[in-house]
Amino acid sequence: MKIKGTAVQTIPDFIKKIHGDRYQEWLNALPMASQLIFKRMIITSGWFPIEEALTTPLKVTASLFYHNDQEKTARTMGLFSADEALTGVYKFFVKMGSPKFLIERSTSMMKTYFEPCEIQVFYGASNGCIMQITHFPKSDAIIEWNIAGWIERALVISGCKSAKVIVTRSMAKKDSITELTISWE
Fold first, then answer.
1. Structural domain boundaries of the chain?
2. Which entry of 2, 27, 29, 121 is 20 to 30 Å from 53 by CA?
3. Cα separation of 127 and 56, whole Å?
4. How many CB atoms are closer than 10 A to CB 1?
């Protein structure tokens, strides 16, 4: 499974901005395959192996800076990634669109960030939906929490209040799908 360089680039950006004086320590703590990715210029249009470019770096970040709290790490980095991705003209479109529009755009973005990835969204109440990730071969709870954090922050940027994304089913925990229950006011 692969991840797009655009998503990978936010990881060293986060470490440098939030834990800048410890960036080299973080880089040295990564296994060699991950170090090779982050020691080079990350081509945002390129594709990288998800384990070495996302899963492992998130887990190392949790270990070094968040007392191994993988959920807090992943969600925090997802929030940061959404802030980085949804700036400038994108922020204007996010603020102008409805939550449904934002969710639809988020699913489209995820399909371009992760390869392969299949997602379905089901709407019921006017202030929520269910997102089901039905195909994601290298699922890991830390990735699911990272996605949840990204979506939650994107909803807040769009003007939603009390945005909440809960992982209710998880392929990482042997469920057949990953399900995110998304709500907002």
1. 2-81, 87-183
2. 121
3. 34
4. 18
CA distance 86 to 64: 27
Question: What are the CA-CA distances from residue 28 to residues 55, 57, 70, 79, 109 (Å)?
Answer: 16, 11, 19, 25, 31
Among left, alpha and beta (phi > 0; psi -120 to 50; other), residue 3 is beta
Per-residue pLDDT reduced to its tens digit, 148-185: 999 999 999 888 999 999 999 999 999 999 999 999 99
Tell me the residue length of the chain. 185
The owner of tokens 């195909």 is 135
Asked if pLDDT for residue 96 goes beyond 80, the answer is no
Sort 119 into a burial class: Cβ within 10 Å, 0-12 / 13-18 / 19+: buried
pTM above 0.90, yes or no: yes
| Structure tokens belonging to residue 101 | 């529009």
101-125 residue pLDDT tens: 888 888 888 899 999 999 999 998 7
Render pLDDT for 43-55 as a digit per residue (tens, 0 to 9): 999 999 999 999 9
Q: Which of 134, 137, 141 is nearest to 167 (CA)?
A: 141
Query: Strands (DSSP E) along the chain, which ranges?
Result: 2-4, 47-49, 114-115, 118-123, 128-135, 164-169, 178-183
